[in-house]
Amino acid sequence: MDFVSARIITNDIKRLVRFYEDIGLQATWYTEEFAELSTETCTLAIGSKRTMEMFGAGAATPESNRSLILEFRVHDVDETYRKLEARLKDVVQTPTTQPWGNRSLLFRDPDGNLVNFFTPVSPEAIRKYERE
Description:
CATH topology of the largest domain: 2,3-Dihydroxybiphenyl 1,2-Dioxygenase, domain 1
Order of helices and strands: EHEEEEHEEEH
Structural class: alpha/beta
CATH architecture of the largest domain: Roll
Strand order of the largest sheet: 1-4-3-2
Number of domains: 2
Number of helices: 3
Strand content: 35-45%
Helix content: 10-25%
Largest sheet: 4 strands, mixed
Radius of gyration: 16 Å
Mean pLDDT: 94
């Protein structure tokens, strides 16, 4: 089994896709209701609330996530924060070194989803990602 993507359902797809493009991802639009932002390892899909009607009305509620964190490894989280600071409206935590060895920046996207940009900094964390 391969984990290939996570999808956010939103009330304002253009605003949300623009936000992720502004923080460094490139979108591929398949319809006006659906776009994907891919990295080498995974894809973040964004769909309008209307796309959920194909799965069943009410199956997902936009702007209601309070448990999932979207995580992106970046080369230098402190440098990334300096570049993006003016664009980030809801910073939960400025770059901080975590006990597990990652230096993390935690913020919310326009829909309130948590996003973590991190850089491995401890020898153990660096080794973990060298294997990938």
